[in-house]
Amino acid sequence: MKILSKHPLLTGTALAVLAGATLYGCKDFLTSAATPQGTLDQQTLANRTGVEGTLIAAYRQLDCTTSSGWWGCAASNWVWGSVPSDDAYKGSEAIDQPAINDIEAYHWAAGDADNYLNNKWRAVYEGVVRSNSTLRLLKQVQTVTPSEFSAAEAKGIEGEALFLRAHYHFEAWRMWGNVPYYREDDTDFRKPNLTQAEVATELLKDLDAAIAALPVTPRNGQVGRATQWTAKAYKGRVQVYAAQYPAALTTLREVRASGPYALEASYDRVWTGFQEFANGPETIWAYQASANDGEPNAANANTGDRLNFPHSGSPFGCCGFHQPSQNLVNFFVVDAATGLPASLTDANWNARNSALTASTLPPVDPRLDWTVGRDGVPFKDWGTHEPGWIRAPAYGGPYSPRKNVHEKSSGAESTVGWVPTQTNSVNMHIFRYADLLLLLAEAEVESGTLENARTIVNEIRTRAGFRVQGCGWTSDNKVETRYPGCAGDGRIAVPINDPSIRWATYRIGLYAVPFAGQQAARDAVRNERRLELAMEGQRFFDLRRWGIAQQVLNAYLKGVGGGAEENRRLHLRAAEPFAARHALYPIPALQVELSKVAGTDRLKQNTGW
Amino acid sequence: MRATESIAMEKKVPGRHSVRNGLLHCCRIVGMTLTLALALGRTASAQRMEISGTVTSTAGAPLAGVTVRLQGTDTATVTSANGRYSLNGRADGVLVFTLIGQRPVQAPIGGRTTIDATMTRLAYLEEVVVTAYTEQRRADITGAVASVDVESTSRQTGASVLQRLDAAVPGVTVDASGSPGSRSTVRIRGISSFQNNDPLYIVDGTPVQDSYINWLNPDDITSIQVLKDASAASIYGSRASNGVVVIETTKRGVAGPPRATLRVRTGISTPVRGYDDFLILDALDYFEIVKQSYLNAGYAISEVPSNIYGNANSPTVPQYIWPNGCTPNPCTGVDPASYSYPNNLIMGGSAGTNWWDSVFGTGFVGDYNLDVAGGSEETAYGVSFNYFDQQGTAKYNEFKRGSIRVNTEFTRGRLRFGENIALAAERSFGGIPNDDTGEGGILGKNILMQPVVPLRDIAGNFASGKAVGLGNNTNPLKVAYEGRDNKNKNDRVFGNVFAGFDVTPQVSVRSRFGFNLGQSAFAGFSPIFPENSEPTFTNSAFENTSQFSDWTWSNTLRLVRRLSEHNVDLLLGQEANAGNNRFISASISNLLNSDRNSRYIQDALGDANSKDVFSTGGRSALLSFFGKVDYNFADRYVASATLRRDGSSRLGASHRWGTFPAFGLGWRLTKEPFLAESRVFSDVMLRYGWGVTGNQSIPAGRIVSQFGGSRGDTYYDVGGTNSTVVAGFRQTSLGNPDLKWEENRSQNVGADLALLDGSINVVVDVYQRSTNNLLFDPRLPATAGEAAPPIVNIGKMKNTGVDFSIGHRATAWNATLNLSHYKNKIVSIDGEKDFFFGPIATRFGNQVINKVGYPIGAFYGLIADGFFRDAADVASHADQDGAPGRIKFRDLDGDGQITAADRTVIGSPHPDLTAGLDLGMRWRAFDLSGTVFGTFGNEIFDVQKEFYVFRNFSTNVRRDLLTDSWTPENPNAKYPRLDVNDTRSKDISSFYVEDGSYVRLRNLQLGYTVPSSMPRWISIARVYVQAENLFTITGYDGLDPALPAANAFGPAGDVRDQYRGVDRGSYPSSRTFSIGLVTSF
Predict the structure, then answer these.
(1) What is the DSSP annotation of B620-631?
(2) pLDDT tens, residue by residue, B498-536
(3) Nearest 5°: CA angle at A345, between A343 and A350?
(4) A39 and B708: CB-CB below 8 Å?
(5) Of A4, A109, A415, which has the smallest distance from its Cβ to B897's Cβ?
(6) What is the pLDDT of residues B811-827, one digit of tens each?
(7) Cα B679 from Cα B666, distance rounded (Å)
(8) Please, are residues B186 and B166 in contact by the beta-carbon 8 Å criterion?
(9) CA distances from B1033 to B97, B176, B373, B932, B993 (A)
(10) What pLDDT sits at residue B15?
(11) Any idea what DSSP says for residue A582?
(12) What does the pLDDT read at residue B687?
């Protein structure tokens, strides 16, 4: 104390110097605290792990992720390809996901629809960004450490990334038509949109490059990866979408003749939760859903489609979306004599307004009961579909979607996450061989080779008649209370004339004679495409591609085949008439705004929006 | 030694200090109270006598805490709560009475044994306030500094002092929910940034950034100063752009034996309003809404859903609502014996469940404080204990706090040192998030459960609306009940150690090391909900813990010189601040045993696959140098200049350092000859201030690009195994190495007026604040990907406003009125875009926009132009899916259809005027005081209308929907036509926007002071009863117009100011009645 008071100046100065010195001394006082915590930097990833990892992330973007939100990002495109078509309603209740009400009713300029459109736009361009960052990182690693990858590996990675980039742009293209195309060296993210034709050129350019780079079998034997055949098949798809029929014929015939694909023996193995049937010969490319993979919320399962299960009273619990339309169910009715679609011959094929429940009449295409859940019919191996499974029948109709539902005995169900009973590891087909065959048939029709088309359609119909829904009995699904003969009969799929079948009469006939002409062939192919690919998110894009969306969809609402959907589901009375502008979805208004440079929108909105 | 000390000690007497105009008292530790008085003489032997008396204000109120000292000795005491004192004095001595804010009184004893004193308040400009690092006399302050009347804010009950700042001073607004211990959003003079706009709190010299401050016992606080403009705040440069609130807790002892004061308050609270005031309570009334909605939409009566109420022509309350479709009523097919939980539930029908009442009710609150202070010549101490326990008005919701504070100071010659330390433990309980509302919370759509749904099923388990048409809500009582063990723990050690040394009488140095150590933990549980329409059979346990430590070391040197009429006060300083935090969270689902004692994150206790563990952390540092010089000429002209340089680790290496200058000028007109003799103006001071402050409130580490990913986002089962994933990565955020300081330039012109001999005080300030280089992350086009966009310095925002206060003090009453107005405007965003949306979208989209030319967080949507009259009206209007009785939207762009392009700004949450009126009166031993708060011109976007008007998710609805929905006979109804197929009227529009103005009696207190003439053994000194939020005058139709800001975080941090005034179902304020007593012994 005494020293302090005797030498105050000294003490004060000493204190100040000490304080200052301590801090000046730590030169990096600020710098050391500036490092971000808990993340990776670019340098850490400039190697094999990083390149492969970014490519994996590019695949993952095929379906909704934990960062994408909502359901417009679903790999199945149920919001965009199914609900606005004549296949399905939004379903559920009017008040759940009201944005999709606007999409269903063609109010695409509404703010709610815009949010959903934006969700899809973001999802596909995030796919493009992830693909491009793989390509960039690969180039960087090859420059800095060329030994990291063998030439074949590098080509394979490049091919996969190019292919993925093409896929994501294809998704954007079939939604919006005029979209910008982004490659790995782009730095301006406000590029103007290209025309539809220009995008097609870019897509084919990328696919050709991918075909040149990709191996014929999946790299590392991993079935989720694209191969040269995947890219070739996809090329044919783009060519058909671009109406380049002669070129498409060449591409698709080659895939058919020399590719590794075939139809599954039985239709029920196309969409299945059984691991042993997943990625069978019919799979060209699918989103590989995984459940119980350590992701605590089952986010890698069927995320984009998890709402599309029967509701509360069912074993799935939630949420009753994406319900098949009455029109679609009626369309599966066949002519008792020929086994061909009744719609070909019966002017009143669509007159039935009430639920088509279990009944031996009228005869139906067996694919109906692989596609649609209807009361009284065994639902895979879950027992019979019941009225209590439907969330709001007056609003969404009496039917449930089925293809995306796993079999109970498949073990594909998740054990974790919000309502795990509606999460499974059923893969989402992005492109399957039957789809390819029907695209080929379409190209054959448009090229005048009608018999080739008939062969394909019949091939598909033959397969469709191979196996039909069976009892699917399990000890606790109570299917035998309605069908006593089912007791102990656990077969999910049975031959078409199996005596256990009590809920339907399944019939399917072939086109026995050559088509009467090109229009008849076209109708047959288009009808077959609807039946085969129903509820798979394709129908709306098909109708638009064929140029008949306006005619078909207005007829669907106002009356066709003796029935009008707006009298069945009254909320559809609020639908806007389908008009020329609906040929393309509006580009999200937000993205148009964000593309502004010097006061001008770089992205041009589609005509009419 | 003694001689030296006596000079030093003398300066500590505040009265003397303030009498000596113009000379600032010497350097002292920030945080020291001025009530410290040390007497020098030792006890004298002769003429001892006991002297006692009462000290009162000029208004007659007993003054507690007055230091009464026998001049020239260390004999001193402090008055008790009823103003009484007694000490041993000498007949020839002189008593000196001192109290902060009061003019000191000297009273020669002259042989008396009873000496009462009356103290008058210091003139406004003579008050000494603690501002930045130092104390200053108001007359020397050129910036906008407002003092909070701690006494009047103590009439509010609540965990945090922040919630008491509302209406306390002009220019400060506070939003908080009614949930105990909830977060406060304090805003000073509008909003200056897109990011966090919390002010900087300086508690006993240590900076804190915290929106709760629940660990600080409000009862420990002795003074609160709000530094509103840059010329006052820029000494805190780096983080001062949102203003600074300087809080002092120095309840310290004076020489003498320990003196204890006990303050106790207990009361009960109820919500100010409940949904049951305006929702349908009768099940059949509700069905009438459903029925009308179907019939009006064109359905036949046979098509009206009959699964609950049976035939729509003769609806009845159902015997059972589940199993679904159990009709007719009474239904036949249900066998109660088949009930089994959770797979076969049976739920009866209710004639009308009052869901609000089932969850909200009465809560108890208790606040107990004991402080003990004392000391000697060389030691002064103050110790306080607090226990605070507040139950929410919602069930199972509670906040508790225990705290201990120890403040001591030791004096050794010219050296002073000591510490202030607070230890606090907080516990909060309940499944109710404090202000993170939205539809998932109890107050979102859950409490809007239909009246036909029973509270419990036939077996006594919680019921819910499982059947078709009953929505997808969750039983709100179950949410509360199952969350009853959800516990949030927050432990804190906060304080500082300090040392100061007077090198010479003019030069002093000081060093202070402040620390803030905290750890918090949360453990929660989510049960299965098999009774829901969207049932879940997965339970889960989740917990997280976080720890942080933050320290601040500041060193200052102060020089005070007086040369005739020139007074110079120079402060030089240096400060370093560093902090780090670490957070870990984990969860697991499918617990085998859901008992609270088994809720741990272990593989064996649940589904190991669902285990999710996550940790993160952060570090940041600031280094600062600053200086301030104050100059005063003859008390007439005042000038000050400040310069601060701050370096921040959050910013780019080459832009790390920012310089923050400020200056202020003051002119005390009453010292000029021409006004010196004025009878009207007893004191007039004009002020002007200009300055720059900074902001760097962004997450650390955003100067570089970051990569990452997660299993659900970037991992993929590329091998088609169905059950294993391969790791993937993506870019998660884009960095910006050029990040620099956000700068806020402010100008303030003010006047302090004392009129009519100081009986009326007026303070007026007019200001403009403009923020440049706004730190935020403008959205990139989606073609750039989902990585968080870089934070950039771009954009400008401007606030202009006026703060006004007028106060009057008379013998029997006093009144102070505060008025403030600000106007916030976004001047530019990034030069390209002119808007971006707010951070939260609801079911129907995004209703908030940040748009150039409008204030931050403006409401955005279509303009509702009433209802369509008839078919002709629909036909002639732009295409919008219209029908008679639906809302008609305005075709702003004239393209013949209603689209997103017709949206515009439809409202603003910012008030035009906020007002606080503080009133007090006194009659004999009774005193009555109260505070009225008012806000005017702000609007509320009532998102709850999605539910209680548009019946989204089949929730319950407002009762007046039955009587005031559009019909051809009632074309000017309040609501559109009930129409189940009307999907357009609900679009985001001005229909949701309501006037949010309200006036509320914040508190009213009636007190009785036990007169000093009463026998001394009555130690209770003052008792009172008080009411808070007794009444509210408002036109707002929703629950409570006093809304908290939502919890909103973007990749660039806290963005809650982009989401204000949106009613998503907020915990209402409480009406609290309490009684209290204050006693000293």
Answers:
(1) EEEEEEEEEEEE
(2) 999 999 989 999 999 999 999 999 999 999 999 998 888
(3) 35
(4) yes
(5) A109
(6) 788 899 999 999 999 99
(7) 22
(8) no
(9) 44, 19, 43, 11, 18
(10) 36
(11) G
(12) 93
The number of CA neighbours under 13 Å toward the Cβ of B61 is: 24
Cα A141 to Cα A157: distance, rounded to the nearest angstrom: 12
Q: Strand, helix or coil at B10?
A: helix
Nearest to B576 by CA among B621, B620, B623: B623
Distance from C-alpha of A338 to C-alpha of B926, rounded to nearest angstrom: 101
pLDDT of B796 > 80? The answer is yes
Chain-centre distance for alpha carbon B787:
32
Coil vs helix vs strand at B644: strand
**Residues of chain A falling short of pLDDT 50:** 1-4, 25
B712 touching chain A per CB within 8 A: yes
The distance of B654 to chain A (nearest Cα, Å) reads 11
To the nearest whole angstrom, how far is the Cα of B294 from the nearest Cα of chain A? 10
Question: Residue A557 has what pLDDT?
Answer: 97
More confident residue, B261 or A379: A379
Partners of B264 in the β-ladder:
B368, B1077
End-to-end CA distance of chain A: 84
Contact residues, B window 255-274, toward A, CB-based 8 Å cutoff: none
Q: Given an 8 Å threshold on Cβ–Cβ distance, is A59 in contact with B728?
A: yes
Q: What is the mean pLDDT of residues B621-639?
A: 92
How many other CB atoms are there within 10 angstroms of residue B730's CB atom? 26
| Alpha-helix runs per DSSP H in B27-164 | 150-153
Q: How far apart are CA B330 and CA B623, in angstroms?
A: 76
Q: What is the tens place of the pLDDT at every residue in B378-411?
A: 888 999 999 999 999 999 999 999 999 999 999 8
Find, among B647, B742, B737, B621, the residue nearest to B195 by Cα.
Answer: B742
The full 3-state SS of B156-217, as one line of letters, equals CCCCCHHHHCCCCCCCEEEEECCCCCCCEEEEECCCCCCCCCCCEEEECCEEECCCCCCCCC
Write the DSSP symbol of residue B501.
E
Among B35-39, B392-396, B673-677, the least confident range: B35-39
The chain-wide mean pLDDT, for chain B, equals 87
| Contact residues, chain A, for B501 at CB < 8 Å | 4, 8, 11-12, 15
- Cα A318 from Cα B123, distance rounded (Å): 70
DSSP for A499-530, written as a single string: TT--S--B------S--SSHHHHHHHHHHHHH
Count CA atoms closer than 13 A to B340's CA, side-chain side.
Answer: 2
Phi-psi region of B777 (alpha: psi -120 to 50; beta: other; left: phi over 0): beta
What pLDDT is recorded for position B22?
Answer: 32
How far are the Cα atoms of A229, A525, B89, B843 from residue A113, in angstroms, in the given order? Answer: 36, 32, 85, 12
| A454/chain B closest Cα distance in angstroms | 34
Choose the closest CB to A1 out of B412, B784, B952: B412
- Which strand ranges, in their side-by-side order, compose the sheet holding B1062-1063? B993-995, B939-942, B1062-1063
**pLDDT at residue A23, rounded to an integer:** 54
b/e per residue A405-438 (b: at least 16 CB within 10 A):
bbbbebbbbbbbbbbbbbbbbbbbbbbbbbbbbb
In chain A, which residues have their Cβ closer than 8 Å to the Cβ of B706?
A: 36, 39-41
Question: Which amino acid, B715?
Answer: Y
In this structure, is the dihedral angle defined by the CA atoms of residues A506, A543, A603 and B879, taken in order, positive or negative? Answer: negative
Q: Residue B469: its pLDDT value, please? A: 84
CB-based contact B786 A275, cutoff 8 Å: no
> In whole angstroms, what is the distance from residue A428 CA to residue A432 CA?
10
Q: What is the structure's pLDDT at B253?
A: 62
For B331-353, how does the pLDDT look when each residue is reduced to its tens digit (9 = 90+)? 777 889 999 999 889 999 999 99
